[in-house]
Structures are given as C-alpha cells and as structure tokens.
UniProtKB/TrEMBL annotation, chain A:
The name this protein goes by in its record: R3H domain-containing protein
Localization terms from the record: Membrane
Similarity annotation: Belongs to the ROH1 family.
Recorded topology in the membrane: Single-pass membrane protein
UniProtKB/TrEMBL annotation, chain B:
Protein's name according to its UniProt entry: Exocyst subunit Exo70 family protein
Domain of life the protein comes from: Eukaryota
Key word Transport present: yes
Domain Exocyst complex subunit Exo70 C-terminal residues, every copy: 275-624
Function (record text): Component of the exocyst complex.
SUPFAM superfamilies found in the cross-reference section: Cullin repeat-like (SSF74788)
Family: Belongs to the EXO70 family.
Keyword tags: Exocytosis, Protein transport, Transport
Organism ancestry: Eukaryota, Viridiplantae, Streptophyta, Embryophyta, Tracheophyta
Length: 390, 642
C-alpha cells in the first residue's frame, strides 16, 4: 500500500474519536485538524513535485502514467480526509447555515463538472491506447531482422499516423453534435483519420453536445475564492482547499490526455500563490503550464510524458525510415534499434498502466458521486431538523 | 512453387538411407510369408508406390536446387505483377470476381513463401537473393495495405442498415408529469404498455453474408503475414463507426453530460429515460449480440482477437449508455421518477447475464463490472425513490378542504401510479425484499391464498395505501361539515377499491383487503346518513299530544332543514354513478319513509297549504344531491309547483 493511504486510515480514526468526545465546532481540536489537513495536502503534493532520485527511469517523472496514477491516489486520500472533516460528528444544521448555504452547493456543482471531466479523460485514455497500438505496429516492424524496405515502409506508415494523432489540435479534436456526428471524414485506413482514433476524433460526442473541458474548468474556478476574515479560520478553508485540489487534478488530467475542447487552459488556473499548503501544487502547475504553452502552439494531443517521448522517438524514427536503404547501415541501424527499444518500453509501460489509470479515474468518479450523495443526505437531515414542527 | 519447395532444408543423403531401409522392410515382409493376408498385400504395394513417388520428388529437389534462385525470382515476378496490378486499380478485389481474388491471394501466398524460405536460410543468401527478399517484403507490405483498404471498403459497402423495427420510442413520452400537488396523473393518461417483443428474433444482419468468406480470406492472409493487428484496427474502426451511426442516426440517441442531465426538465428527462430503457435492451440483445456473432464468424480461427475486437467496437457505446444511467442517478430522486427508475433498473438487472456472456473474458471485465455497478446504483436509487414516493404521500398536506368531497387528485395519482407497478413485480419484489414495512395484513389469514398477496411488493403497496388513507383522513378533518368528511372518505375509499378490483392490483391487495375496504366505505355511508339526516328526521318525530301549531312548525322546520341540506349537498360530489345511485336510494328510503309517515299522521292537522313538499317532491329533490351542481340552488322560490 502507498504510504499516503496509511496516513488516511489513522487520520480518520483519530478524528472520529475526537469528534465523538465533543462536538463544539470551533474548538482548538478542530483548528488542529484543519492545520493537519493543510499539512497533509502540502506533504502529498511536495512528494509529487520532487523529482525521483537519478537512478529512477523517466517513468516516474511528472506527467508520466505512473505519476498520474500517484496523483489519483493523492486525490483520493485528500478527498477522504476532507470528507471526514466536513461531515464526521458534525451537527447537520451547521453546514446548511450561511455561508455554507452558498459554499456547499457551489462545491457540489464543481463536483458534477469534475464527473464529466473524469468521463472525458477515461475516453481520452482510450485514444492514448490507440496511439500505443500504432507505436506497437511500428516497433514490431522495425524489430524485424533482416530489416527490409517492406518493414520500414510499414513502420513509417504507422509512425506517420502516430505523429498525426499525437499532434492533433484541439480544434480538430472536436466535432459538434451528439452520438457520432462525423465532421472528420472516415478514411479507409484506420490510422488516417484526423483524430487518430474514433474516440478522439469525435471527442465532443463522447460527453455531450457542446461540452467543453475548458468551459467546465473555467466554470469550476469562477466562484472559487479563498475565504476571508472569520471564514478563513473555519470550515470554509478546507472546502476551498479541496475545491482547489479537485480543480487542479482535473486540470492536470485534461492536460495529460486528449480531451474535448480545452483551448486556453494552459494559462488558466488561478491557484493561490501565497498559501503554504499550495506551494508544491503551484510548482507542479507552473511546470505543466509552461510545457503546455509550448505545446499548445504546435498542437498536441496531450502532455503525458510517455506521449511526449513517443512523439520525439516517432520523429527521429521517421527520419531514420526516410533515409533507409536496404541493407541497413550498421551505425544507423544500431541507433534506431536503441530508439525502437525505448519505444517498445513505452508501449510496455502503457500496456501495464493505462487501464489501471482508467480504473482509478473511474474510482475517483464513484468517490465523488458517493461523497456528494453523503453531503446531500446530511443537508436533507439538516432541512428536516431546521424545518418548523408542523 | 517447385522452386520454393527446393528451399526447404533437405539433407538428401539421410533421406535416401531411410527410403532404402523402407524398401528393405517391405521386401523382407513379402519374403517372410507366401500366404499374406490380401489386405496386408495391398497395404504393402501402396507403401511401395508411395516410396517411389517420394524418391522422384527427392531427386527433383536435388535437380531444382541448383536452378532454384531463378525459379524463385520468376515466381516472385509473377506474384509481384499481380499485386502491383491492384495498386493501379482502386475498385474492390471482391467485385472483380472469385477467380481474380484467388489470383491475388495466391500471389500473396507466393510472396509470403519467398520470405519464409529466405528466413529459413539467411546465411546462404547472396546479394541478388537478398534483393529479392527485400523486394518481396515491400510487395508484401503493399499487398497488406491494399487488403486493409479492401477490408474497409467491403465492410462499409456491404454494411446492412439495421432498421429500428424493434423500436417505437416517442422521445417525449408525456405520461406522468409530476408536480408538487400530485394533480397531473389522471385516469385518462394511464399509458398502454408498448413494450414490444424485442426478444422475438435476436439477430439482425449487420453485414451481407455473401462477403463474409472474402473478409475471412483477408483475415487469414493478414494474420498469416503477421498483420493481424492491422486487420483488427481497421475492422474495429469501421464496425465502431457503424455502431456509432446506428446509435446516433437510427436510434437518435444523444449523449448527455452529467451537467446536462442535472439541468434537464423532468419532461425531457422522462422521455430520455424511457428511451434509454428500450435502447439499452435493443443494443445489448439485438445489435451487440449480432456484432459478437459477426466477430466470431470472421475471427473464427483467431479466437482471442475476436473477443478483444468486439470489446473495442462496443466499449464506447456501452460506456456512454452506462454514463447516462449514472448521470440520472445523480438527480435527487423525485417520486415521479419511480416508474422510470424501475424500468431502468429492471432492464439493467435483466441484461446482466447477457452482458456477462457478451463480455465474458478478461478484456471485457471492465465493461462487465461497469454494468454491474450501474445495476446496483439503479437498484439503490429505485428503492430510495420508492421510499420518497411513500413519504411524499404520507406527508402531503393541504390547508384548505378539498371542495365538493370528491376524489382527491392525490388518490388518483397514487392509485394510477400503483397500477403501473405490477408490471415490475419481479424487480420490486427483489428490491423491496429487505425493506421494513408495516403491513395491514401481517399474516396469512386463510382468506387469501395467492402468494402474490404476501409478496414484499404487496406488503409495500398496502402500506403505501395505508399512508394514503391517513393523509386523506387528515384532509377530511379540514371540512367544517361533518357529513362532507364522510362523503369525501367514502368517495376516495371507493375509488381505491375500484382501482384495485379492476386491475392486476387485486392479486396483490387480496380479497381480505378489498372486503375490509368495501366495509369501510359502507361505514362512511352510514356515518354520512347519521350525520346529515338524524337531526333532520328527528324533527318529524311527533307525538299525539302535539298541537296543530307544533305540527305545522315541525313541518316547516323540516322543510327548512331539508332546503339547507339540499342547498349544500347538491354541490357535493359523488363521481361514481353507481355509488351515487346507492346513496340516493338508501337516503330516499330513509327520508321519504319518515316524511310519508309524518304526513300520513299529521296532514289533516297541518293543512295542505302548510305542506311545502310532497313525498314525490322530496324523492325527486333527493336525486339532485351529490350532483356537484355549480351554484347553490334555492328552493324556496322556484320549487313550489302548486
């Protein structure tokens, strides 16, 4: 098990014991809980920001599949801890009073938008799996010995399709209309479609008509402001923190894989710069944001580290293929072989980790659904309690 | 061909030794016994002839080996010509006819053999041979690319458009429109169930069966040349697009985000939920089942690819359908959603076995699990909605009395809603099995023998009606006039009984319930008569000592009281004609008899001009009661006919 999850268990246990002892809300203990929550957030994101020690392969780097899976774990831990703070042992009427009558619905609204992003990202990962299959074809062809023009020709075709798919711009990525409206012409070659794969090329259709990741992220941040004055010390703070974490995680996922309509997101994400707990989060945000801005000009299917490397390898292997004459020159063949091996390694990693990542995102989806239901239930209770007795 | 065979690793010396040894054995067997069994004799001669052909082949091999390369080159040249010929020709190989197609596949086969033979003996190859090998690999790739195109073309061209004859979905089924006052579900709008027999024929033709052998030939060739993955990718793409098109164009299924679904008007959502219920069934049982068969037919020899491709083809659509279910489950469960949720739950639970079969293997486990999760979610939502429904009935409050004492819209709504539920009895019994309920008939009493009367669903239905009854009892207390309270209760109870008696519901509520409730509204009738008429009729209770003026007074007071009753109760409502008749008769019997008796005893003393109503007047006036007349009718002026 990951260490973060161990934390979570003991944390929940402790909170519940304390809350059972007493339920006065503004106790010192609650203050302590809030501080602990902030500390955990800070620790978890610091761990994500810190690059792995040198012998580690690039697979552990920011935006790698492995890293994204860690990020999902971090999200789940934060979420569990937050829910404990929000609900456990609390008098239900408390979260229905101002300012919570505004803050809670806003938070729930964000969570619905996050759900749609989860779905979009799960679809996006399907597109990545399509890139993986194209890369696998290229690898298989280039691993043939003796390497002939026929193999190179086959690899080149797969690589060209891969590069088209990887550099697809958001605009092309979107088709209007529901179901399967086809703005991208279906060509006969599976790799020759604009989006690379059906799921990507009709990215829009997979979620709903006119759905846009960018709009959703914008809407999620629209009313997200740090609590001020009295509120800054109480429950509004963890609510703000959790919302920020949610938006941030969704933003990262949107950046990582093909996702319907995300123009302008590279710049957009107001993260609070001066707060302690947010330091590492801001660090990660800047790193990804810079990369995104660079890529946005060229057009890119996603910033997932494996995809970025795949693109680089794809370009140089195509170069190799262009200059290839049978029989292969020894030197060129050797350097190509090393690249092919690297590509094969990326494919292997994708094969191992993409589906589990999809499953984790599904888990995030279900967790958000569950938490929302629990919060609504508490609000309903509160409604009953505060309603005048008939 | 012969040239290719020569490239097989042959070691002539060894082979010759074996052949000689065989000859020797045969000879020895012949010599050993002169009276050989005829069968054995035949066997031996067969063997001898086989051995001799082998020797011929063997010598040929040795001869050809020397000239092998030029033979290979010649064979390859031919094959190359055939394959490159198709590069210029963009039409389908399929349409050129079987013999042309065979030529292509044969050429491909030849090229492939050139490659395998080179691979078998790479050390022996010289520069020229290597060049041929290299060219062969290129030609192979050209051929594969050509086949990929051919595959897509044929799949697209010979795709059969599946007509939605299984489907007549009105996307806006405006059946139960709910509002807080439960007014909208009237008797008239109870829908006829239009659930067609989807199961009748489970399979549709997705692809012209005539082209399947051709596609199989393409599959065989591509898999044999190690281009299986390319075949799968192309196949998946075309078939997935076909499914997309079926969903969006034929079934007109639009995709909705969670945000969309949460913001949707109930009317629209109701239509979408209804449609989803049908589409899920059709897509799973008909379309996907047929798609799976198609995959199995085409990938027959490449089993693992079949399941994987099928999953890839269906995944996107299945997940989008499941996503709608999940999104709907996010809505706060309003009572009006009960039937839709029941439908959605029922269909998803019903399909679990089919889904397990369709996505049986490892690659499909993701979809299988997602489907099971959704069925569970829908089950929870349905139960929650059911409770909400009951609570809404129990807590329905009004501030004003329901005018006229007729059938309250809540009663209509609930009873008509309940009538829809027997259709989902299996689902409901499963879902409600573990839910606590207070039932008005806790034990089998012997009156009812049907098991359905004691099923969890029946207990819950009765408890819902009990909740309805207490709500109505509260509403009845709002009437200022006591008799109207009884009329109201009678009307509503009678309505419930009628709804139960004349529908499937009777098997659930049982005879005892019906009997009890008939008794209950009859009791209301008695109560009504007592509350209205005992005081009025008590005026007619005379005794012989009454003076003339007292008798006249009694008569006058009775008529005034009668006028009052008339004025009020003609505005009251008993919508059921039979019930109204019964009430008229029993009232008439009581009132007219007493009045007639009174008049018979006192007519002389009172004097005709002081008798405002004759018995016949009273009798006919009583018929106006409960007719729900729009405005109070005054009798004093209009009714004097003499």
């Amino acid at each position: 098990m990951r260490p973060a999850q161990d934390n979570q268990g003991s944390f929940l246990g402790r909170i519940s014991i304390r809350r059972n002892q007493f339920t006065d809300v503004n106790t010192e203990q609650e203050q302590e809980d809030l501080e602990l929550f902030q500390k955990h957030i800070a620790d978890r994101f610091t761990e994500l920001l810190t690059p792995p020690p040198p012998p580690q392969p690039p697979s552990e780097q920011i935006m790698s599949v492995t890293w994204l899976r860690k990020l999902m774990d971090v999200f789940l831990c934060c979420e569990a801890e937050f829910k404990a703070i929000l609900l456990m042992g609390r008098d239900p009427t408390q979260i229905s009073k101002p300012p919570f009558d505004r803050l809670v619905p806003e938070m729930l609204d964000r969570s619905i938008k996050a759900l749609d992003i989860c779905t979009a990202v799960v679809n996006g990962i399907d597109s990545v799996r399509h890139y993986q299959r194209l890369a696998e074809i290229a690898v298989a062809a280039l691993e043939q010995r003796p390497l002939g023009d026929g193999n190179v020709r086959r690899a080149k075709r797969a690589l060209a399709n891969l590069l088209i798919a990887l550099s697809i711009e958001d605009k092309e990525n979107v088709s209007s209309g529901g179901g399967g409206n086809k703005t991208v012409e279906r060509s006969w070659s599976f790799g020759r479609r604009g989006g690379g794969s059906s799921a990507a090329s009709k990215g829009g259709a997979t979620i709903g008509r006119n759905w846009s990741a960018a709009k959703q992220i914008h809407a999620m941040t629209a009313n997200l402001t740090p609590p001020r004055g009295n509120e800054a010390a109480g429950l509004p703070l963890p609510m703000f923190i959790m919302s920020t974490v949610t938006v941030f995680v969704m933003w990262v996922l949107t950046a990582a894989v093909p996702c319907q309509e995300r123009a302008g997101l590279a710049n957009h994400l107001p993260v609070p710069k001066h707060l302690n707990w947010a330091q590492s989060l801001v660090g990660i945000h800047e790193k990804i944001g810079d990369e995104w801005k660079k890529k946005e000009k060229k057009g890119s299917a996603g910033l997932m580290e494996e995809m970025t490397r795949m693109e680089k390898l794809g370009h140089s292997l195509i170069e190799f293929a262009d200059g290839f004459h049978y029989p292969a020159e020894k030197e060129a063949a050797e350097s190509a072989a090393a690249q092919v091996a690297e590509m094969a390694e990326i494919c292997r990693r994708m094969e191992e980790e993409l589906v589990p990542l999809q499953q984790q995102i599904r888990e995030v989806f279900h967790r958000i659904v569950r938490s929302r239901a629990e919060i609504l239930e508490v609000l309903e209770q509160a409604g009953k309690l505060s309603a005048p007795v008939v | 061909m012969a040239g290719l065979e020569s490239k097989l690793p042959v070691v002539p010396g060894v082979k010759n030794h074996v052949l000689e040894a065989c000859h020797h054995v045969v000879k020895a067997l012949r010599a050993s016994d002169n009276n050989l069994d005829p069968n054995l004799t035949k066997l031996l001669s067969d063997l001898e002839s086989h051995l001799s052909t082998l020797e011929i082949v063997d010598t040929k091999v040795v001869v050809v080996e020397d000239t092998g390369f030029s033979e290979i080159k010649k064979g390859f040249k031919e094959a190359k010509k055939v394959i490159l010929g198709w590069e210029q020709n963009q039409s389908m190989i399929l349409e050129a006819g079987v013999s042309k197609a065979d030529l292509f596949f044969q050429a491909l086969h030849d090229v492939q053999r050139v490659l395998t033979s080179f691979k078998a003996l790479p050390i022996r190859t010289n520069k020229k041979e290597k060049d041929v090998y290299n060219q062969a690999a290129v030609v192979l790739d050209i051929a594969m690319f050509r086949l990929e195109k051919e595959l897509c073309d044929v799949l697209n061209q010979y795709k059969q458009h599946v007509q939605p004859q299984y489907l007549s979905v009105s996307s806006r089924g405006k059946d139960i429109v709910y509002d807080e006052s439960f007014v909208s579900l009237d008797d008239v709008v109870v829908e006829a169930t239009d659930d067609q027999q989807i199961l009748g024929s489970n399979n549709v033709v997705l692809l012209d069966p005539l082209v399947i052998p051709h596609i199989k030939a393409i599959a065989k060739a591509m898999f044999a040349c190690d281009y299986g993955q390319a075949f799968c990718e192309a196949f998946i793409t075309v078939r997935r697009d076909a499914l997309d098109e079926y969903m969006s164009t034929t079934l007109e299924m639009e995709r909705f985000s969670c945000v969309d679904v949460l913001g949707m008007q109930w009317e629209d959502l109701n239509g979408e939920m209804r449609k989803w219920t049908k589409v899920l069934k059709i897509v799973t049982l008909v379309y996907l089942a047929s798609e799976k068969q198609l995959c199995d037919k085409i990938f027959g020899d490449f089993e693992p690819s079949s399941a994987a491709c099928f999953v890839e083809i269906s995944k996107d659509t299945v997940l989008s359908l499941l996503a709608f279910g999940e999104a709907v489950s996010l809505r706060s469960c309003q009572p009006e959603m009960l039937e839709r949720f029941l439908g959605m739950y029922e269909v998803s639970a019903e399909l679990l076995l089919d889904v397990d079969n369709l996505f049986g293997d490892e690659t499909g486990s993701f979809l299988r699990m997602a489907f099971h999760e959704l069925a569970k979610t829908l089950a929870d939502r349905t139960v929650a909605t059911f409770s909400k429904f009951k609570n809404a009935i129990a807590s329905d409050e009004s501030t004003r009395a329901f005018s006229g004492g007729g059938i309250h819209h809540l009663t209509r709504y609930v009873m008509n809603y309940l009538k829809l539920l027997p259709e989902y009895k299996d689902a409901l019994n499963t879902l409600l099995g573990n839910m606590q309920v207070d039932d008005s008939i806790p034990e089998k009493t012997g009156q009812d023998i049907l098991p359905s009367t004691f099923s969890p669903m029946a207990r819950h239905l009765r408890s819902i009606v009990t909740a309805l009854e207490s709500t109505l009892e509260r509403k009845a207390q709002l009437y200022a006039e006591e008799p109207l309270k009884y009329i109201f209760l009678m009307n509503n109870c009678h309505y419930m009984v009628q709804k139960v008696k004349t529908s499937e519901l009777r098997h659930f509520f049982g005879d005892e319930w019906i009997r009890k409730h008939i008794a209950s509204y009859q009791h209301n009738v008695t109560d009504y008569e007592r509350a209205t008429w005992s005081s009025v009729l008590s005026l007619l209770k005379d005794n012989s000592k009454d003076s003339v003026s007292t008798s006249r007074d009694r008569c006058r007071l009775f008529c005034l009281a009668f006028d009052d009753v008339y004025k009020n109760q003609t505005r009251w409502s008993v919508p059921d004609p039979e019930l109204r008749d019964d009430l008229h008769i029993s009232t008439s019997v009581k009132v007219v008899q007493s009045y007639r008796g009174f008049l018979a005893r006192n007519a002389d003393r009172i004097g005709e001009k002081h008798v405002r109503y004759t018995c016949e007047d009273i009798e006919s006036l009583l018929l106006d009661l409960f007719e729900c007349l729009p405005s109070p009718r005054s009798l004093r002026s209009s009714r004097r006919r003499w």
